[in-house]
Amino acid sequence: MKKIFLVARREFSVRVHKKSFFVLTLLAPVLMALLITIPVIIMSLKSGDTNVIAVIDDARSFDTVLVSGSTLRFVLLEENTNVADVRKNFDALGYYALLHIGELNDSGEPQMLKFYSTKQVSLEVQQQVAGMLSREVEQRKLRAYNIPQLEQIMQDVRANLHATTVKWGDNGAEQNTHAGVAMGVSYAAAFFVYIFIFMFGGMVMRGVIEEKVSRIVEVIVSSVKPFQLMMGKILGVAAVGLLQFTLWILLTLLLVSVLGVVLTPANLIGTLESANAGNLPMPLSGLSGGGGLHLLSYLSGFNFAWIAACFVLFFLGGYLLYSSLFAAVGSAVEAESDTQQLMMPITLPLIVAIFVMLNTFRYPDSALSFWFSIIPFTSPVVMMARIPFDVPVWQVALSLGVLYATFIGIVWVSGRIYRVGILMYGKKPSFKEMWKWIRYR
User: Fold this and answer.
1) N or C: less crowded end of the chain, CB within 10 Å?
2) How wide is the angle at C-alpha 230 spanned by C-alphas 9 and 12, nearest 5°?
3) H/E run at residue 335
């Protein structure tokens, strides 16, 4: 055990003192903070350009419908103007696009609605123009029924309901919750587990390959057993990962707080509140009045201490499980380019876990979500996707128990591959060959 600790301490010390560790530790929180704040800022900005759209209205029935604004200006062309005439002088006239509205059919709808331009017309412009015309056609159809005050009646009966959910605590306390917010927390937790397992597991594999290629390992194994060397590497990199992850969390929270105050003094909350009107393509849409403030209220309903504890346990379990397999792969090859064939069976369960995670957002208590959160090769990702949805403690305990028990078995198997592969040169092993290594006495 002492030698395992010495190897782990060496791995930790060597990696922490590298410049890349400091650069990545400082750079990652900056990128994360920008990814969180910049999209909100960008969505609060409006383009200063005004696009001029020429309009050919064959029926001359929408003259007053297309209203110019700060971003769009409509120019109604004279009667009998055709598309070919406009195309000749299109660039010279400075038009952004030409809108051709055809004759009306029996239902009062244009038979044709087509944009012409020398470049791709943006989706926002298409939706804005189509929205104006659609509303006008709807109003005309309503007026055709000749029902007194029909527009007022339609306005009165129109409803826009948003359901809120309240979670009862064990002590009888009530806490507002929101499925969209839970899904966001779920996605972040599961995705980070997935990324960190690959990141730090790959670090173990590359370290093994480097030492094997440089022949340093031949000197090291004269003092420690191969299994001790493998476990020391796994535990040392795990300590580096936990330290780096803790620093990332603290620095990201600090930077998000600073950027939220400095860059968005008024826009941040206002933009979040616009989610109530459905303007943000994110789970925040549907928050009842004052989306930004309610978001903080919904987040306070999560037991982040419990989520963080589960994150650490499942990250460690998943990392230990997969890094032992990565170490075995690294010991069996002499270059990182040779790992692709051996890595596919190892990484496939994690890829499957990502697809199951997407289903878990919708059905966190389904049989599919339950079993994949128990299977050790997928449980670190899938269970973390379920935890924000209040998974029973016994299921979390069962998942962790199976995960760590499987890790012990995988370590034994990987150790037997590692002890042979680490000193094997000049041969690319197959799975059949590695199976023989496991059975060597």
Assistant:
1) C
2) 20
3) none
Least confident of 52-66, 154-168, 256-270: 256-270
pLDDT in tens, 4-19: 778 788 778 877 888 8
- What pLDDT is stored for residue 401 in this prediction? 94
Three-class secondary structure of residue 56 per DSSP:
strand
Pairing of strands 51-57, 72-76: parallel
CA distance 193 to 136: 50
Cα separation, 325 vs 119, in Å, equals: 52
Give residue-wise pLDDT tens across range 259-318: 656 554 444 445 444 444 444 444 444 444 444 445 455 555 567 778 888 888 998 888
Name the phi and psi angles at 289, rounded to 5.
Answer: -15, 130
Domains and CATH numbers, the chain: 51-155 (3.40.190.10), 177-439 (no CATH)
* Cβ-based neighbours of 197, under 8 Å, separated by 6 or more: 315, 318, 319, 322, 350, 380
